[in-house]
Amino acid sequence: VSVADLRGPGAPAAGGTARRHVLTARTGTVTLPAGRPIDAWSYEGRLPGPAITATEGDLIEVTLRNADIENGVTLHWHGYDVPCGEDGAPGATQHAVRPGGEFVYRFQADQVGTYWYHTHQASHPAVRKGLYGTLVVMPREERPEAERGLDLTLPVHTFDDVVILGDQEGRAVHDARPGQPVRLRLINTDSNPHWFALVGSAFRVVAVDGRDLNQPGEVREVGLRLPAGGRYDLVLTMPDANVTLLLDHDPDQGILLRPAGAGGGDRTLPDTGDWPELDLLAYGEPAPVPFDGDDADRHFTIVLDRALAMVDGKPAYAQAVDGRAHPSVPDQLVREGDVVRFTVVNRSLETHPWHLHGHPVLILSRDGRRYSGSPLWMDTFDVRPGEVWEVAFRADNPGVWMNHCHNLPHQEQGMMLRLVYDGVTTPFDSTSHAH
Ligand code: C2O
Ligand code: CU
Fold this sequence. Notes:
The chain contains three helices and 32 strands. It is an all-beta fold and 435 residues long. The longest helix has 5 residues. The mean pLDDT is 95.
Protein backbone atom coordinates (compact mmCIF):
# COMPACT_ATOMS: atom_id res chain seq x y z
CA VAL A 1 0.00 0.00 0.00
CA SER A 2 1.14 3.52 -0.74
CA VAL A 3 0.42 6.28 1.82
CA ALA A 4 -0.95 8.20 -1.14
CA ASP A 5 -3.90 5.78 -1.12
CA LEU A 6 -4.55 5.97 2.62
CA ARG A 7 -7.06 8.79 2.36
CA GLY A 8 -10.12 9.87 4.32
CA PRO A 9 -13.74 9.21 3.35
CA GLY A 10 -15.61 11.46 0.91
CA ALA A 11 -18.75 11.82 3.03
CA PRO A 12 -19.70 12.37 6.67
CA ALA A 13 -21.12 9.61 8.89
CA ALA A 14 -24.92 9.26 8.93
CA GLY A 15 -26.42 12.39 10.42
CA GLY A 16 -23.19 14.39 10.13
CA THR A 17 -22.53 17.36 7.89
CA ALA A 18 -19.56 18.40 5.77
CA ARG A 19 -17.52 21.28 7.20
CA ARG A 20 -15.66 22.88 4.32
CA HIS A 21 -12.88 25.42 4.63
CA VAL A 22 -10.34 27.01 2.34
CA LEU A 23 -7.11 28.01 4.05
CA THR A 24 -4.71 30.11 2.05
CA ALA A 25 -1.24 30.45 3.51
CA ARG A 26 0.53 33.73 2.88
CA THR A 27 3.11 36.15 4.17
CA GLY A 28 2.07 39.61 5.29
CA THR A 29 1.26 41.85 8.20
CA VAL A 30 -1.59 40.76 10.46
CA THR A 31 -3.06 43.25 12.91
CA LEU A 32 -4.02 41.83 16.31
CA PRO A 33 -7.38 42.91 17.79
CA ALA A 34 -5.64 45.39 20.09
CA GLY A 35 -4.05 47.03 17.06
CA ARG A 36 -0.54 45.64 17.09
CA PRO A 37 0.83 44.69 13.67
CA ILE A 38 2.68 41.36 13.39
CA ASP A 39 4.93 40.46 10.50
CA ALA A 40 3.51 36.98 10.00
CA TRP A 41 2.99 33.92 7.90
CA SER A 42 -0.67 33.06 8.32
CA TYR A 43 -3.64 31.05 7.16
CA GLU A 44 -6.27 33.42 5.77
CA GLY A 45 -4.45 36.44 7.15
CA ARG A 46 -5.49 35.54 10.70
CA LEU A 47 -3.62 34.78 13.92
CA PRO A 48 -4.40 32.08 14.85
CA GLY A 49 -5.77 30.70 11.56
CA PRO A 50 -9.54 30.15 11.25
CA ALA A 51 -10.93 28.02 14.10
CA ILE A 52 -12.11 24.69 12.72
CA THR A 53 -14.97 23.20 14.68
CA ALA A 54 -17.12 20.18 14.05
CA THR A 55 -19.49 17.76 15.69
CA GLU A 56 -18.56 14.11 16.06
CA GLY A 57 -19.28 12.29 12.79
CA ASP A 58 -18.96 15.36 10.57
CA LEU A 59 -16.64 15.38 7.59
CA ILE A 60 -13.88 17.97 7.73
CA GLU A 61 -12.72 19.04 4.31
CA VAL A 62 -10.02 21.66 4.08
CA THR A 63 -8.52 22.98 0.88
CA LEU A 64 -5.05 24.29 1.54
CA ARG A 65 -3.67 26.84 -0.90
CA ASN A 66 -0.29 28.46 -0.85
CA ALA A 67 -0.13 32.07 -2.00
CA ASP A 68 3.54 32.86 -1.46
CA ILE A 69 5.26 30.73 1.20
CA GLU A 70 8.36 29.91 -0.77
CA ASN A 71 9.39 26.70 0.97
CA GLY A 72 5.90 25.30 0.74
CA VAL A 73 3.27 24.49 3.37
CA THR A 74 1.09 21.64 4.60
CA LEU A 75 -1.59 21.08 7.23
CA HIS A 76 -0.82 18.61 9.98
CA TRP A 77 -3.71 17.76 12.32
CA HIS A 78 -1.81 17.57 15.59
CA GLY A 79 -3.10 14.72 17.76
CA TYR A 80 -5.86 13.81 15.32
CA ASP A 81 -5.46 10.22 14.16
CA VAL A 82 -6.38 10.80 10.53
CA PRO A 83 -5.68 8.28 7.75
CA CYS A 84 -1.98 8.61 6.97
CA GLY A 85 -2.44 10.27 3.58
CA GLU A 86 -4.17 13.21 5.33
CA ASP A 87 -1.41 13.72 7.92
CA GLY A 88 0.37 16.59 6.19
CA ALA A 89 3.93 15.36 6.75
CA PRO A 90 6.04 16.39 3.76
CA GLY A 91 8.53 13.73 2.75
CA ALA A 92 6.29 11.03 4.23
CA THR A 93 2.63 11.58 3.32
CA GLN A 94 2.69 14.26 0.61
CA HIS A 95 4.87 16.81 -1.15
CA ALA A 96 4.73 20.26 0.39
CA VAL A 97 2.28 22.58 -1.38
CA ARG A 98 4.31 25.09 -3.39
CA PRO A 99 3.21 28.66 -4.16
CA GLY A 100 0.23 28.48 -6.49
CA GLY A 101 -0.53 24.87 -5.52
CA GLU A 102 -3.23 23.25 -3.40
CA PHE A 103 -4.04 20.07 -1.49
CA VAL A 104 -7.42 18.92 -0.19
CA TYR A 105 -7.57 17.21 3.21
CA ARG A 106 -10.59 15.11 4.17
CA PHE A 107 -11.21 13.21 7.33
CA GLN A 108 -14.04 12.25 9.62
CA ALA A 109 -14.32 14.06 12.93
CA ASP A 110 -14.53 10.97 15.07
CA GLN A 111 -12.33 12.11 17.97
CA VAL A 112 -14.07 14.54 20.30
CA GLY A 113 -11.89 17.12 21.98
CA THR A 114 -9.29 19.86 21.66
CA TYR A 115 -6.67 19.68 18.90
CA TRP A 116 -4.77 22.03 16.64
CA TYR A 117 -3.31 22.24 13.17
CA HIS A 118 -0.08 23.62 11.81
CA THR A 119 2.18 23.44 8.79
CA HIS A 120 4.73 20.64 8.85
CA GLN A 121 7.02 21.99 6.16
CA ALA A 122 10.07 23.65 7.71
CA SER A 123 7.87 23.86 10.82
CA HIS A 124 10.60 25.88 12.39
CA PRO A 125 10.26 28.80 11.72
CA ALA A 126 6.92 28.51 9.86
CA VAL A 127 4.74 27.63 12.87
CA ARG A 128 6.36 30.30 15.02
CA LYS A 129 5.59 32.87 12.33
CA GLY A 130 1.90 32.02 12.53
CA LEU A 131 0.94 28.98 10.45
CA TYR A 132 -1.29 27.39 13.10
CA GLY A 133 -4.92 27.24 14.22
CA THR A 134 -7.31 25.25 16.43
CA LEU A 135 -9.50 22.20 15.81
CA VAL A 136 -12.28 21.44 18.31
CA VAL A 137 -14.76 18.60 17.94
CA MET A 138 -17.91 18.50 20.08
CA PRO A 139 -19.77 15.33 21.09
CA ARG A 140 -22.80 14.46 18.99
CA GLU A 141 -25.44 14.49 21.70
CA GLU A 142 -26.69 18.06 21.83
CA ARG A 143 -26.89 19.79 25.14
CA PRO A 144 -28.92 22.96 25.55
CA GLU A 145 -26.93 26.15 25.15
CA ALA A 146 -27.44 27.10 28.81
CA GLU A 147 -25.90 23.86 30.02
CA ARG A 148 -22.89 24.25 27.80
CA GLY A 149 -21.94 27.55 29.39
CA LEU A 150 -18.82 29.45 28.43
CA ASP A 151 -16.41 27.49 26.25
CA LEU A 152 -13.12 29.20 25.34
CA THR A 153 -10.44 27.83 23.04
CA LEU A 154 -7.13 29.35 24.12
CA PRO A 155 -4.01 28.60 22.09
CA VAL A 156 -0.91 30.31 23.50
CA HIS A 157 1.60 31.49 20.93
CA THR A 158 4.72 33.63 21.07
CA PHE A 159 5.71 36.00 18.28
CA ASP A 160 9.13 37.54 18.78
CA ASP A 161 8.12 39.81 21.66
CA VAL A 162 4.36 39.31 21.88
CA VAL A 163 2.48 36.47 23.53
CA ILE A 164 -1.10 35.91 22.50
CA LEU A 165 -3.67 33.71 24.21
CA GLY A 166 -6.56 33.03 21.86
CA ASP A 167 -6.21 36.04 19.60
CA GLN A 168 -5.39 38.63 22.26
CA GLU A 169 -2.29 39.87 23.94
CA GLY A 170 -2.34 40.89 27.58
CA ARG A 171 -5.28 39.87 29.71
CA ALA A 172 -8.65 39.26 28.09
CA VAL A 173 -11.89 39.70 30.02
CA HIS A 174 -14.90 37.40 29.71
CA ASP A 175 -18.20 37.55 31.56
CA ALA A 176 -19.76 34.43 33.01
CA ARG A 177 -22.92 33.94 35.06
CA PRO A 178 -22.34 32.62 38.59
CA GLY A 179 -23.21 28.91 38.55
CA GLN A 180 -22.48 28.63 34.84
CA PRO A 181 -20.07 25.89 33.67
CA VAL A 182 -16.86 27.20 32.12
CA ARG A 183 -14.51 25.18 29.94
CA LEU A 184 -11.04 26.48 29.11
CA ARG A 185 -9.26 24.66 26.30
CA LEU A 186 -5.55 25.40 26.74
CA ILE A 187 -3.33 24.68 23.75
CA ASN A 188 0.43 25.20 23.65
CA THR A 189 1.44 26.06 20.08
CA ASP A 190 4.95 27.14 21.11
CA SER A 191 8.12 25.07 21.33
CA ASN A 192 8.62 25.40 25.09
CA PRO A 193 6.33 24.53 28.00
CA HIS A 194 3.97 27.13 29.43
CA TRP A 195 2.62 27.36 32.97
CA PHE A 196 -1.02 28.00 33.79
CA ALA A 197 -2.59 28.66 37.17
CA LEU A 198 -6.21 29.31 38.06
CA VAL A 199 -6.89 31.76 40.87
CA GLY A 200 -10.29 32.07 42.56
CA SER A 201 -11.86 28.70 41.86
CA ALA A 202 -11.40 24.96 42.16
CA PHE A 203 -11.40 23.15 38.83
CA ARG A 204 -10.91 19.80 37.13
CA VAL A 205 -8.59 18.87 34.29
CA VAL A 206 -11.17 16.89 32.34
CA ALA A 207 -9.10 16.11 29.24
CA VAL A 208 -5.44 15.90 28.25
CA ASP A 209 -4.46 16.07 24.59
CA GLY A 210 -8.12 15.83 23.64
CA ARG A 211 -8.81 12.59 25.54
CA ASP A 212 -11.08 12.54 28.61
CA LEU A 213 -9.57 11.53 31.95
CA ASN A 214 -11.35 9.05 34.23
CA GLN A 215 -12.92 10.75 37.27
CA PRO A 216 -10.60 13.74 37.53
CA GLY A 217 -10.89 15.23 41.01
CA GLU A 218 -11.28 18.86 41.95
CA VAL A 219 -8.02 20.69 42.55
CA ARG A 220 -7.04 24.22 43.48
CA GLU A 221 -3.82 26.15 43.88
CA VAL A 222 -1.82 23.88 41.62
CA GLY A 223 0.44 24.81 38.73
CA LEU A 224 -0.20 23.27 35.31
CA ARG A 225 2.79 22.76 33.07
CA LEU A 226 1.60 22.35 29.50
CA PRO A 227 4.10 20.72 27.12
CA ALA A 228 4.78 22.18 23.70
CA GLY A 229 2.04 20.91 21.41
CA GLY A 230 -0.11 19.69 24.33
CA ARG A 231 -3.66 20.53 25.44
CA TYR A 232 -5.46 20.61 28.79
CA ASP A 233 -9.21 21.16 29.11
CA LEU A 234 -10.14 22.75 32.44
CA VAL A 235 -13.70 22.83 33.75
CA LEU A 236 -15.02 24.93 36.60
CA THR A 237 -18.30 26.32 37.86
CA MET A 238 -18.30 30.09 37.81
CA PRO A 239 -18.34 31.45 41.38
CA ASP A 240 -19.72 34.88 42.24
CA ALA A 241 -16.26 36.46 42.31
CA ASN A 242 -13.47 36.97 39.79
CA VAL A 243 -11.50 34.02 38.47
CA THR A 244 -8.13 34.60 36.86
CA LEU A 245 -6.24 32.26 34.58
CA LEU A 246 -2.58 33.22 34.80
CA LEU A 247 -0.11 32.44 32.07
CA ASP A 248 3.52 31.90 33.09
CA HIS A 249 2.81 33.41 36.53
CA ASP A 250 2.39 36.82 34.94
CA PRO A 251 -0.59 38.80 36.33
CA ASP A 252 -0.73 40.80 33.10
CA GLN A 253 -1.22 37.74 30.90
CA GLY A 254 -4.12 35.34 30.78
CA ILE A 255 -7.87 35.56 31.19
CA LEU A 256 -10.11 37.33 33.67
CA LEU A 257 -13.53 35.74 34.18
CA ARG A 258 -15.94 38.24 35.69
CA PRO A 259 -19.23 37.26 37.27
CA ALA A 260 -21.84 38.90 35.08
CA GLY A 261 -23.67 41.66 36.88
CA ALA A 262 -21.15 41.95 39.70
CA GLY A 263 -18.57 44.71 39.73
CA GLY A 264 -15.96 42.13 40.73
CA GLY A 265 -13.08 44.39 41.57
CA ASP A 266 -9.60 43.12 40.94
CA ARG A 267 -8.20 41.08 43.76
CA THR A 268 -4.48 40.99 44.43
CA LEU A 269 -3.14 37.92 42.78
CA PRO A 270 -1.01 35.47 44.76
CA ASP A 271 2.42 34.40 43.57
CA THR A 272 1.43 31.25 41.73
CA GLY A 273 5.08 30.41 41.05
CA ASP A 274 5.16 28.66 44.45
CA TRP A 275 2.21 26.41 43.77
CA PRO A 276 3.00 22.69 43.44
CA GLU A 277 2.77 21.20 39.97
CA LEU A 278 -0.19 18.93 39.32
CA ASP A 279 1.20 15.48 38.52
CA LEU A 280 -1.01 13.96 35.86
CA LEU A 281 0.47 10.51 36.44
CA ALA A 282 -1.31 10.45 39.80
CA TYR A 283 -4.50 12.33 38.92
CA GLY A 284 -7.96 10.84 38.46
CA GLU A 285 -8.96 7.21 39.02
CA PRO A 286 -7.58 4.02 37.43
CA ALA A 287 -9.66 2.27 34.77
CA PRO A 288 -9.08 -0.72 32.50
CA VAL A 289 -6.88 -0.11 29.44
CA PRO A 290 -7.21 -1.91 26.10
CA PHE A 291 -3.81 -3.66 26.10
CA ASP A 292 -0.97 -4.69 28.36
CA GLY A 293 1.96 -2.34 27.78
CA ASP A 294 4.25 -4.76 29.65
CA ASP A 295 3.59 -7.43 27.07
CA ALA A 296 4.51 -5.50 23.93
CA ASP A 297 5.20 -7.05 20.52
CA ARG A 298 7.87 -4.43 19.77
CA HIS A 299 10.03 -2.41 22.08
CA PHE A 300 12.09 0.57 20.95
CA THR A 301 14.44 2.63 23.04
CA ILE A 302 14.80 6.25 21.96
CA VAL A 303 17.82 8.04 23.41
CA LEU A 304 17.74 11.83 23.09
CA ASP A 305 20.97 13.79 23.32
CA ARG A 306 23.22 16.21 21.49
CA ALA A 307 25.68 14.56 19.10
CA LEU A 308 27.86 15.33 16.16
CA ALA A 309 25.76 14.21 13.19
CA MET A 310 24.83 15.18 9.65
CA VAL A 311 21.96 17.70 9.36
CA ASP A 312 20.99 18.82 5.85
CA GLY A 313 24.16 17.28 4.50
CA LYS A 314 26.44 19.16 6.89
CA PRO A 315 28.05 18.00 10.11
CA ALA A 316 26.34 19.71 13.04
CA TYR A 317 26.06 19.59 16.80
CA ALA A 318 22.68 18.00 16.25
CA GLN A 319 19.67 17.24 18.39
CA ALA A 320 20.10 13.52 17.98
CA VAL A 321 18.12 10.31 18.35
CA ASP A 322 20.39 7.40 19.23
CA GLY A 323 23.39 9.46 18.10
CA ARG A 324 21.97 10.23 14.65
CA ALA A 325 19.94 12.98 13.08
CA HIS A 326 16.99 12.87 10.68
CA PRO A 327 16.91 11.49 7.99
CA SER A 328 19.69 9.09 9.05
CA VAL A 329 17.88 7.71 12.10
CA PRO A 330 16.72 4.18 11.17
CA ASP A 331 12.95 3.74 10.76
CA GLN A 332 10.99 1.94 13.46
CA LEU A 333 9.22 -0.98 11.77
CA VAL A 334 5.91 -2.27 13.11
CA ARG A 335 3.12 -4.54 11.96
CA GLU A 336 -0.55 -3.64 12.11
CA GLY A 337 -2.03 -4.88 15.39
CA ASP A 338 1.26 -4.80 17.33
CA VAL A 339 1.40 -3.39 20.82
CA VAL A 340 4.44 -1.12 20.61
CA ARG A 341 6.40 0.14 23.57
CA PHE A 342 8.77 3.10 23.61
CA THR A 343 11.35 3.78 26.29
CA VAL A 344 12.27 7.45 25.84
CA VAL A 345 15.49 8.44 27.58
CA ASN A 346 16.57 12.07 27.81
CA ARG A 347 20.32 12.29 28.33
CA SER A 348 20.48 15.97 27.46
CA LEU A 349 20.08 19.16 29.44
CA GLU A 350 16.92 20.29 27.61
CA THR A 351 13.28 19.24 27.69
CA HIS A 352 12.06 17.20 24.72
CA PRO A 353 8.28 17.16 24.12
CA TRP A 354 7.96 13.82 22.34
CA HIS A 355 5.25 13.53 19.68
CA LEU A 356 4.21 10.51 17.64
CA HIS A 357 1.88 11.15 14.71
CA GLY A 358 -1.24 9.09 14.14
CA HIS A 359 -1.55 7.43 17.57
CA PRO A 360 -2.01 8.58 21.14
CA VAL A 361 0.33 6.78 23.53
CA LEU A 362 -0.63 5.38 26.92
CA ILE A 363 1.77 6.53 29.62
CA LEU A 364 3.11 3.52 31.58
CA SER A 365 5.69 5.12 33.84
CA ARG A 366 8.10 7.98 34.41
CA ASP A 367 11.47 7.25 36.00
CA GLY A 368 10.25 3.82 37.02
CA ARG A 369 7.18 5.11 38.83
CA ARG A 370 4.02 3.70 37.28
CA TYR A 371 0.99 5.86 36.77
CA SER A 372 -1.50 5.55 39.56
CA GLY A 373 -4.29 7.82 38.38
CA SER A 374 -6.56 7.85 35.35
CA PRO A 375 -5.23 6.14 32.24
CA LEU A 376 -3.31 8.93 30.57
CA TRP A 377 -3.23 9.10 26.78
CA MET A 378 -1.01 11.76 25.33
CA ASP A 379 0.21 12.74 21.92
CA THR A 380 2.95 15.01 23.24
CA PHE A 381 4.71 14.33 26.54
CA ASP A 382 7.54 16.30 28.07
CA VAL A 383 10.64 14.26 28.75
CA ARG A 384 12.67 16.50 31.02
CA PRO A 385 16.44 16.31 31.42
CA GLY A 386 17.47 12.95 32.85
CA GLU A 387 13.98 11.46 32.70
CA VAL A 388 12.98 8.05 31.32
CA TRP A 389 9.41 7.54 30.12
CA GLU A 390 7.76 4.25 29.20
CA VAL A 391 4.77 4.53 26.88
CA ALA A 392 2.84 2.12 24.67
CA PHE A 393 0.30 2.16 21.89
CA ARG A 394 -1.56 -0.15 19.54
CA ALA A 395 -0.38 0.03 15.93
CA ASP A 396 -3.86 0.44 14.47
CA ASN A 397 -3.41 3.18 11.89
CA PRO A 398 -1.25 1.95 8.99
CA GLY A 399 1.13 4.42 7.45
CA VAL A 400 4.47 6.15 7.53
CA TRP A 401 4.39 8.38 10.60
CA MET A 402 6.75 11.05 11.87
CA ASN A 403 7.93 10.58 15.43
CA HIS A 404 9.75 13.62 16.76
CA CYS A 405 10.55 16.25 19.31
CA HIS A 406 7.96 19.05 19.24
CA ASN A 407 10.44 21.67 20.22
CA LEU A 408 10.49 22.62 16.56
CA PRO A 409 14.06 23.98 16.47
CA HIS A 410 15.13 20.58 17.87
CA GLN A 411 13.11 18.81 15.20
CA GLU A 412 14.82 20.95 12.56
CA GLN A 413 18.19 20.06 14.06
CA GLY A 414 17.56 16.38 13.54
CA MET A 415 15.43 15.06 16.41
CA MET A 416 12.98 13.09 14.29
CA LEU A 417 12.50 9.60 12.91
CA ARG A 418 9.77 7.62 11.23
CA LEU A 419 7.51 4.81 12.37
CA VAL A 420 6.76 2.65 9.34
CA TYR A 421 4.16 -0.10 9.04
CA ASP A 422 5.10 -3.30 7.33
CA GLY A 423 3.79 -3.18 3.76
CA VAL A 424 3.27 0.58 3.57
CA THR A 425 5.46 2.62 1.25
CA THR A 426 5.74 6.30 0.47
CA PRO A 427 6.35 7.88 -2.92
CA PHE A 428 7.17 11.16 -1.12
CA ASP A 429 10.34 9.99 0.57
CA SER A 430 12.54 13.00 1.24
CA THR A 431 15.64 10.93 0.61
CA SER A 432 14.47 9.48 -2.72
CA HIS A 433 14.90 12.71 -4.75
CA ALA A 434 11.93 11.53 -6.81
CA HIS A 435 10.71 15.09 -7.11
CU1 C2O B 1 2.49 19.09 15.83
CU2 C2O B 1 4.92 16.52 13.71
O1 C2O B 1 3.71 17.82 14.74
CU1 CU C 1 13.74 18.44 21.84
